[in-house]
Specification:
This protein has 294 residues and is α/β, with parallel strands linked by helices. It is built from 13 helices and ten strands. The chain folds into two domains: 216 residues, 3-Layer(aba) Sandwich (Malonyl-Coenzyme A Acyl Carrier Protein, domain 2), CATH 3.40.366.10; 63 residues, Malonyl-CoA ACP transacylase, ACP-binding (Alpha-Beta Plaits, 2-Layer Sandwich), CATH 3.30.70. 49% of the residues lie in helices and 17% in strands. The protein is globular, with a radius of gyration of 18 Å. The relative contact order is 0.17.
Amino acid sequence: MKKAYIFPGQGSQYPGMGKELYEQYDEARRLFERANEILGFRITDVMFEGTEEDLRQTKVTQPAIFLHSVILARLLGERFRPDMVAGHSLGEFSALTAAGALSFEDGLQLVARRANAMQKATEQADGTMAAVLGMDDETVERICAEVDGIVVPANYNSPGQLVISGERSAVEKAAELLREAGARRVVMLKVGGAFHSPLMEPARQELEKAINQTPFAAPVAPVYQNVTAAPETDPEKIKRNLIAQLTSPVKWTQSVQRMIRDGAVEFYETGPGNVLLGLLRKIDRGVKGFKAEV
């Protein structure tokens, strides 16, 4: 009976996240304090005492979710025995760190670099994202391709839920056409920029340098990567896919379906929130989903 551990991405943060772990476990306290040193500011203060607005800053959100997820996996100790792992967007870094492909320090530093690079890229271009609900992927892909300007599928979250991303004017035009074509709803998202689209190219270049300077090891279990939705254990291929991730779509639906085909019957969401368990139910009701708890 194969177990898959899945790690959430941006949007799973909440005020007070990680505080219980910090207060109850010495190992958690040590890792959180180490993170404060590495980041150069007390991210724990923002996580434990900050508002939703404070936590929404990209430079805080991404390291905060990474820390909550990776520290939780650490605290599971011997019980963390995945047959496979995957993470949604940012969560891929958590998955790689939890599975031993990256050290805690290197994983956190890459996430901090990624967050800052994405923040900068959002300031260089007027981009946005929209969630398209109740429409098949092929129709969404076709309509995006017909629109002038940059608008692309960004997150294949579950059947009937696909997020598009790109230049604001092109996303708004695509949203209008998708509604006309019969989408149940198209919701403009409150995001800082056009993640997982060509507008992230400056961030991709910056992250590529950082990834190429970072040592990667083979993970303890295959990592099903966002870019390919396929299992990977080779450090060089993992790095290549990770570099491509910022400007490529997150193939989450396809990753989960592949994990199930490869034998996963229990999925454990490891980190804040339960967004991925909700998506899991929409992808396949036949598998079991749990919150990973210490």
